[in-house]
């Protein structure tokens, strides 16, 4: 193999517009801010990673500005002259010098793995166990902020055989109105689909206990992060109280936080997201402890564009069981893409690409058009 050693690391902040406003409890997305990392080896080959963030600092504490600054100053220098196939060793070394910064670590590890796989001309999933699934169930998030529009959207998705799992973003405004909104959607499309809700930390324990009862009676199948991320005890009490599954999302970030949630049973399912865990290797470890404890696993998203979505698809294809399917629909919400490749969905499932690396060919004109 010609020169495999790392020569250069570049990062870009990109603002990509979405097709329609996407309303969450804490923010409404009109453009998504993402970070793209490109690692080049001495022969000119490139590996590419992506992490996406939601609503500046309103969703989580990693902002694109901080991710880029911390990669450029504190992480990138450790990569120069290293061989990307030793991504495990490189990330262990980065971990010794850089605390936290899970999104920054994730985007770099993704680009390292992509480059290592491209150097060997193999799909990236071969480097972490190989593919179990050729396709995975794919949820869509109904979050237009308007009940009638959400129903219309769900009907269209069912008709096109794109999605038959719908996650409803609630938690914005009055909790009673939130639950009535869910009730109308369940009435319209609940017979042909599975409905889940994501509260994104917006309720307190008292409101949650009242509203979850109503949601459970309607036939909703999963409640995502009803309480603030810090409230492990409240999540544990809700899990004990209800039969319906309580999914921990914002509260499961690092391996250590997730271990605590699993040990204390502060939920009974976890949402995986390579960005929030600090990369592919950490995501696989978290899936392992969840599996060992009998927790349900959900293939989550930060609403990545085609780059990060293909990376999540590749990782998830190597994890044995997704009790709740996946929601790696990001590219379908964007108006445009940064790669030549598109997401492929058939018969309600995302198809896992078998191309070299993570299967992303960057469109540099688009990258330069959308970069900040
Ligand atoms: C979240 O909290 O799950 C995932 C899908 C979606 O619509 O929002 C994200 C974030
Ligand atoms: Mg969530």
**Low-pLDDT residue intervals, each spanning 5 or more residues:** none
Spatially, the strands of the biggest sheet line up as 5-6-7-8-9-10-11
Q: What series of H and E elements makes up the topology?
A: EEEHHHEEHEHEHEHEHEHHEHEEH
Total domain count: 2
What separation lies between the terminal Cα atoms? 36 Å
Q: Helices and strands: which structural class?
A: alpha/beta
Question: Quick one: biggest sheet?
Answer: 7 strands, parallel
Strand content: 15-25%
CATH class of the largest domain: Alpha Beta
Using the CA coordinates, give the radius of gyration.
20 Å
Q: Count of helical segments?
A: 12
Provide the helix percentage: 25-40%
Going by CATH, what is the homologous superfamily of the largest domain? Enolase-like C-terminal domain
The average pLDDT value, as a whole number, equals 97
- The total beta strand count reads 13
Ligands in the model, by name, code or SMILES, are:
[(2S)-5-oxo-2,5-dihydrofuran-2-yl]acetic acid, magnesium ion
- By CATH, the architecture of the largest domain is named Alpha-Beta Barrel
Question: Which fold does the CATH topology of the largest domain refer to?
Answer: TIM Barrel
Shape: globular
Domain Mandelate racemase/muconate lactonizing enzyme C-terminal: 148-245
Keywords: Aromatic hydrocarbons catabolism, Isomerase, Manganese, Metal-binding
Pathway: Aromatic compound metabolism
Pfam families: MR_MLE_C, MR_MLE_N
